Amino acid sequence: QKAEWDKLRDEKTVTADGKSYTLAANIGTPKDLTGVHENGSEAIGLYRTEFLYMDSAELPTEDDQFEAYKEVLESMDGKQVVVRTMDIGGDKHLPYLPLPEEDNPFLGYRAIRISLDRQDIFRTQLRALIRASAYGNLGIMFPMIATIKEFRDAKAIFEEEKAKLVEAGVKVADKIEVGMMMEIPAAAVLADQFAKEVDFFSIGTNDLIAYTMAADRGNEHVSYLYQPYNPSVLRLIKHIIESAHAEGKWAGMCGEAAGDPIMVPILLGMGLDEYSMSATSVLKIRSLMKKLSTTDMVELAERATKESVTNDENIKLVNEFMDKF
Ligand code: PEP
Ligand code: MG
């Protein structure tokens, strides 16, 4: 197996019927770049920037952030790097940014909600990102978007900061894709409307499953409800992908499910374009995809969303399908 994976490292990700997909890596800090390269990742689909804030004793300055983003972009040598703006709140806290005491922090003040409220913090991050864009292929996405207004507001602030930097003569990339995480059911249901305004979607299954099933992803007492293959979750995912494609946009996934061998065949059948996962899963998934034919997977995805009614049925369905290969 090691010999096979060594060979796969420099290969593109192509299915048995010749379709290409992007296998990307999730990172938390520039230190993770070694793993990204060692495992032949074709892009970075999620750079979780909250670690920059969490590993610091105070708010990271614009220059600190610029250096980190630039390092990642340069290291990827023209391959896309999707950076997610700060996703603080929920279970992630900053010692120097007191958050309100909340009964339900996962339904509370977090992620883009904080960024739109604390625009000083948000604008600093966006300026650092826009400056870094000159050094590679940057995409930016916003976490926990629930409404079209949040996306429009966040994008407008991005455009304002970009215009100011251009005005000041700072070099910025010609094109910076601006997209959003799809991890709140309200947004997923309205994906067809969102798709008109974004450059791309990245599906955050970790949260999307939790909010769809109303079951905390870390709570062992309700872990039986954490069901990635529940047809309700799969239908949302399918709707997100189809909505993106109907507007000529791409759809990726950066939750754990993107590197899950049971989920990947279904996602291929739905036409998901980009799969972003822990770097250590990239070669395993590339090896799997090479064996699969997209056209067979279309039938699998149809059955998984239209015929199955439970999570377990879908696990069985995929396993039966895969026995053929
Ligand atoms: C997700 O929710 O699937 C995701 C990728 O974001 P995080 O795990 O950082 O919340
Ligand atoms: Mg999330």
UniProtKB/TrEMBL annotation:
One of its GO terms (biological process) is phosphoenolpyruvate-dependent sugar phosphotransferase system. One of its GO terms (cellular component) is cytoplasm. It catalyses: L-histidyl-[protein] + phosphoenolpyruvate = N(pros)-phospho-L-histidyl-[protein] + pyruvate. GO terms for molecular function: kinase activity; metal ion binding; phosphoenolpyruvate-protein phosphotransferase activity. It is found in: Cytoplasm. Keywords: Cytoplasm, Kinase, Magnesium, Metal-binding, Phosphotransferase system, Pyruvate, Sugar transport, Transferase, Transport. Phosphoenolpyruvate binds at R48, R84, N206, D207, R217. The active site is at C254. Belongs to the PEP-utilizing enzyme family. General (non sugar-specific) component of the phosphoenolpyruvate-dependent sugar phosphotransferase system (sugar PTS). This major carbohydrate active-transport system catalyzes the phosphorylation of incoming sugar substrates concomitantly with their translocation across the cell membrane. Enzyme I transfers the phosphoryl group from phosphoenolpyruvate (PEP) to the phosphoryl carrier protein (HPr). This is Phosphoenolpyruvate-protein phosphotransferase. It comes from Amylolactobacillus amylophilus DSM 20533 = JCM 1125.
